Amino acid sequence: MPISDLFKPLTLLHGPPMRNRFMLAPLTNQQSMDDGTVSEFDREWIRQLAHGGYALITTGASTVEADGIAFARQVGIHDDAHLPGLTELANSIRRGGGLSAVQLHHAGHRANPTLGGIPSPASGWTVPGVQALTTEEVERIRDSFIAAAKRAEVAGFDGVAAHGAFGWILSEFMSPLLNDRTDRYGGSVENRARLTIEVLEGIRRECRPDFQIGWRLSVERYGLLLDELREITGEILRRELIDYLDLALWDSNQVVQDGTFKGKSILSVFTELPRGGVRIGAAGKIYSAQRCVELLDEGCDLVMIGRAGILERDFPMRVKANPDHRSPTFPVSADFLRAGGLSERFVTHLRGWPYFLDPASP
């Protein structure tokens, strides 16, 4: 496909269309205030992105319950006190011409007690000394996702994206390794997917008809099984429970190493599914204009820009201006990031990624 195809509008099942095929992947960056309210650093980060040419911008992982926190200075959406700041972010994105979404997140068994988090495992053995969630507690967390989506609607966002990746609670419940429950949220793959599906159904039921819903899915680690994930994803696509699927791949070029789909690209395992009106995008080492085009050729409807968006907040505009554009090479210096407008809080967060930020960089 030509580069120009990246800049064609894309309709979604609900709400307004995307103006092009670029979506900012949700990027947790630990810039908020300690209570989860939006900070000046959040505002500036979103302001830069809003003028960067993206069709849809998603916040970083936003806590649906205070107890489900995973990171210091994680943005929150679990309390009405968060609404003023979130409204500012939604307005900023709208002024830049893009659509907006809040990523809804609960850390599950990975909640951080040092930050006030309470580990909430699906199984009783996952966290030593911590009992599995009761059925009633699972239902409470489900309802907290739905309540957070309603807050996002009040704040003026176009939609939300449910974080179902990386072993966080929705992903955890999907895993036969991490979920040994015997209630209706455990056992069969249908039962283990029930929490995710009830969250998606509840958001669609409780929010306005044009509210957009995304779902982030990862397929590696945490005991997840590719065959099962494909089955559940197929059901979610068939029922059109979401507007877009965000495949959070470590590398969008990855090939399946064993099992039913050995030798196929992980991407193709999902893009070959009947999708109805649901759109599919992928993230994972997308650093060049050429790779963006290749993803459309490989069956994606949109591309999810993550690390490249940290390096260059206007990555889509650079691609439009130069079909040979490629992101700077890793690792980069802290001064490079500062010069580009990243806050010191964001730079500190990136020090945990030695491949990204030069460890010797002051």
Automatic annotation (TrEMBL):
Keyword presence, Flavoprotein: yes
Lineage of the organism: Bacteria, Pseudomonadati, Pseudomonadota, Alphaproteobacteria, Rhodospirillales
Keyword Oxidoreductase part of the UniProt annotation: yes
Gene3D superfamilies noted in UniProt: Aldolase class I
Keyword list, A-Z: Flavoprotein, Oxidoreductase
Start and end residues of each NADH:flavin oxidoreductase/NADH oxidase N-terminal domain: 5-322
Family annotation (InterPro entries): Aldolase_TIM, NADH_flavin_oxidoreductase, OxRdtase_FMN_N
Record protein name field: 2,4-dienoyl-CoA reductase-like NADH-dependent reductase (Old Yellow Enzyme family)
Organism: Inquilinus ginsengisoli
